[in-house]
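Re: the request from the purification team.
They wanted to know what the chain is likely to look like in 3D before they choose a buffer screen. I agreed to run a prediction and write the result into the notebook, where they can find it.
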Amino acid sequence: MAKKSMIERERKRQKLVDQYAARRAELKARAKDKSLSVEERFKATLKLAELPRNSSPTRLRNRCQLTGRPRAYYRKLKISRIMLRQLGSNGEIPGLVKSSW
């Protein structure tokens, strides 16, 4: 189980990413638009740098929905390998059969 503070920090970051997503996309588009003048593109870049750092999606970390574990994360199921094995052994994941030979 991950520390509760780390899980809460990640939730806070996710909230900021959602809040600033539209503004960040607009500023990025303006900064890359070649039809605008160099000054306008530079201003857009400066405005982008003024946004909170935690509003960037690259600062997010994938975590297990059940335990908060940050490593060995399966994106499709949104759980860690440990929980995948445990839930699979209990028969709680449809179509998953634990292999044994």
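For the purification team: The CA atoms of residues 24 and 51 lie 8 Å apart.
Please add any questions underneath this entry.
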